[in-house]
């Protein structure tokens, strides 16, 4: 196999690893939120343990990408593809961290806490998961139209987050004895909001790849 063909095979494999990692962050967020709503401490611990595996997979992607740069010395678009592979894998690792932090919040809340988890957190999660799907498709097909749509969904998540925080602050005023529990829910909303922000970072990476421009979709 000639060097160029070998490079394309390795690049395709690298892209597959990134797509797989993205879907795993989806699962982590879903399980973390399930643990939060169902007061499932075992599931929360499972998410925390899995985050370490996700970190190792991110490291493997980084090592593979750096090795390809060093060995193949690609230029132009191929070099940008490897650069965004590094950027996207870093965002995915941080998305996993945010899911892990929600799992930790579930553990802090504990079992039988008697509180109702704010329903908007589930709406935020659903939108964030939709953003992951969109970012994966945008990455897979290098589609800047899909990448730009991430900004619209991120605005929805930001608005929901703002509403949750306002309601949580009101709740602390009327139920000061529950402030620690209420804060854990507010933190969880913040982690989902940050999770969504990282998907827009992925959209920015795709725009950089296709257009060669650095744009901010988090404005």
Silhouette: elongated
Mean pLDDT across all amino acids = 93
Number of helices: 6
Given as residue ranges, the uncertain stretches (5+ residues, pLDDT < 50) are none
Our estimate of the beta-strand percent is under 5%
What does the largest sheet look like? none
Radius of gyration of CA atoms, rounded to a whole number: 19 Å
Tell me the distance between the termini: 46 Å
Label the structural class.
Answer: mainly alpha
Along the chain, the helix and strand elements come as HHHHHH
- Level of helix content? over 70%
Structure summary, number of beta strands:
0
Question: Top keywords for this entry?
Answer:
219 residues, mainly alpha, 86% helix, elongated, cytoplasm, PhoU, transport, PhoU_dom
Description of the molecule:
The longest helix is centred in the first third of the chain and has 36 residues. The protein starts with a helix and ends in an 8-residue tail after the last helix. Helix content is 86%, strand content 0%. The protein has 219 residues and is mainly alpha-helical. It has six helices and no strands. Belongs to the PhoU family. It is found in: Cytoplasm. Pfam families: PhoU. It comes from Sediminibacillus dalangtanensis.
In short:
It comes from Sediminibacillus dalangtanensis. With about 220 residues, the protein is an all-alpha fold.
Describe the secondary-structure layout.
Blueprint lengths: L2 H36 L2 H32 L3 H34 L9 H23 L2 H31 L4 H33 L8
């Amino acid at each position: 196999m000639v060097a160029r063909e070998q490079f394309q095979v390795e690049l395709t494999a690298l892209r597959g690893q990134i797509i797989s990692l993205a879907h795993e962050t989806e699962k982590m967020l879903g399980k973390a939120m399930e643990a939060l709503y169902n007061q499932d401490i075992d599931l929360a611990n499972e998410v925390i343990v899995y985050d370490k595996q996700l970190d190792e997979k991110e490291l493997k992607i980084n090592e593979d990408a750096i090795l390809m740069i060093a060995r193949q010395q690609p230029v132009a678009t191929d070099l940008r593809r490897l650069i965004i592979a590094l950027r996207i894998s870093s965002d995915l690792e941080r998305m996993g961290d945010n899911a892990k932090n929600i799992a930790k919040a579930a553990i802090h809340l504990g079992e039988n806490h008697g509180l109702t988890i704010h329903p908007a957190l589930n709406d935020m999660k659903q939108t964030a998961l939709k953003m992951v799907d969109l970012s994966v498709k945008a990455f897979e097909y290098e589609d800047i139209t899909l990448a730009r749509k991430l900004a619209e969904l991120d605005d929805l998540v930001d608005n929901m987050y703002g509403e949750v925080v306002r309601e949580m602050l009101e709740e602390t005023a009327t139920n000061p004895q529950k402030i620690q529990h209420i804060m854990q829910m507010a933190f969880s909303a913040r982690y989902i909001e940050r999770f969504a922000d990282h998907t827009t970072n992925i959209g920015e990476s795709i725009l950089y790849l296709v257009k060669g421009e650095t744009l901010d979709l988090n404005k």
